[in-house]
Amino acid sequence: MHRMILAAAALIAAATAFAAETPARHVYYFSPVNQQNLNVAASFWNPIIEYVSTRSGVPMKLKLGRTSADTTSFVLAQEVDFAFTNHLFSPERAKLGWRVFGRRDAPPIHGQIVVAADSPVTKLSELTDQEVAFPGPEAFIAYKTTYAQLVSAGVPVKVVFGGNMDAAFAQLFSGRVKAVGANSQLVDGYAAREKKSFRVLWKSAPFHDLALMASSRVSDKQVQAVAKAFLSMHHDPDGQEVLRHARQVIGAPAPISFVAATEADYQSYRDFHRTAPVQVQ
Predict the structure, then answer these.
(1) In this structure, are 122 and 251 located in the same domain?
(2) Which candidate, 27, 205, 210, places its Cα nearest to that of 103?
C-alpha cells in the first residue's frame, strides 16, 4: 500500500511538472459589432466562431461588450485579435494596422432614418427637436451616416443612444422616440423577426457590409487559416448547418455566407470620413 501511494504521488508530481513545462495554448479573441441584443448576437456568433476555430486550428473566443461602443473599445485597446466591424476606416484608426480579409456576402447596406409604418411623421423636417434613437456613437451606418444627413439638412434632434440596434428599435415602438437612425439590413431583419413595419424617411448611398478584419499582431499564416475557414464554410455540410442556424437567429432574408474582401472594398467609408460634418467624425 505504501508503495502504491508513493507511485501515485510520483505520477501526480510528473504530470504537474509536465503541465508546468507545457505552454498554455494562446486564445484569440473575436469581437463583432453589437448589431442585435447580446443574447441574439451571442447565439449568432458563438457557433460560427466555434466552427472557424475548429477548422482553422486557431483557437478563438467571442468577446462582446454591453454596447457596440464597449465592443469597439476592446478593438481600439488591442484586447482582441479579430473583428467584424466598420468602425476602423477613419484616418486615425487606419493607423492601427487592422487588415480586411473578408465580409458577409450580402447586398449593399444603407443608412436609413425610419419611423413606425403608422407614424404621422412623413419627412425629416418633422423630426426637428424630437428624440431620435441610434444604436451608439460608433455605429457607422446607423449613426454616422444618418446623423450626418440630419446635420446637413439643418434638422436638429435630441440624440438617444440605445446601445444596440434592437434597443433603438424597441424605443421607437414603445413611443419613447420619434424615429431611429438604422442600418437597412438590420431594419429588414428586425421587421421579419419581430413582425414590425417601418417607413423609410431617408436612405444613404450604398456601402459594403461590415468587414472581417485581423489585427496586425496576428501572423499572416493564422489570418489565412481563419479566412479560409470563414470563406469556405458555406461549402461544407457542417458549416452550412451553422449558417442555417445563424440565419434563423437574426431573421436574415437570404442565406448567410462569407466572401473575400480587400481594403479597396471599403473606400466609400474613407470617403465619408473625409467629407462628413465634424459633429460625426
Answers:
(1) no
(2) 210
pLDDT means per 10 residues in the chain (281 residues)? 41 41 74 93 97 98 93 95 96 95 96 98 98 96 97 97 95 98 96 96 97 97 98 98 96 94 96 87 67
Last residue of a domain, one of 149, 182, 203: 203
Question: What's the grid cell of residue 90?
Answer: 477613419
- Domain with 32 in it: 28-107+208-280
DSSP the chain: -HHHHHHHHHHHHHHHHHHHHSPPPP-EEEEE---S-HHHHHHHHHHHHHHHHHHHS--EEE---SSHHHHHHHHHTT--SEEEES---SHHHHTT--EEEEEE----B-EEEEEETT-S--SGGGGTT-EEEES-TT-IIIIIIHHHHHHHTT---EEEE-SSHHHHHHHHHTTS-SEEEEEHHHHHHHHHHHT--EEEEEE---BPPPEEEE-TTS-HHHHHHHHHHHHHGGGSHHHHHHHHHHHHHHT-SS---EEE--GGGGHHHHHHHHHS-GGG-
Rounded to an integer, what distance in angstroms lies between the CA atom of residue 33 and that of residue 140?
A: 10
Q: What is the DSSP string of 82-118?
A: EEEES---SHHHHTT--EEEEEE----B-EEEEEETT
Q: How many domains does the chain have?
A: 2
Whole-angstrom distance, CA of residue 21 vs CA of residue 67: 39
